Amino acid sequence: MFSDTHFHFQNMTENRGVDGVAVLTSMAERGCRFGLDIGTEADDLLRREYCLEKAITAMEFGAAQKARDFVYFSAGIWPSVDEIRARAERIEVLKGQIEAAAKDENQDTLHRKIVALGEFGLDHHWNPSGVDGRCESDFDDKTYFGEQELFEMQLNLARDMKLPSIIHSRDAFEDTLECIKRVGNHDGIIHCYSYGLEEAKKFLDLGWYISFSGSVTYTKKSKMDAMLELLRYVPQDRILCETDSPYLAPVPHRGEPCSPVLVEHTYRFVAQARGVSLEDLCETVDKNIDQLFFQNR
Question: Could you tell me which of 180, 188, 185 has the C-alpha nearest to residue 210?
Answer without folding.
Answer: 188
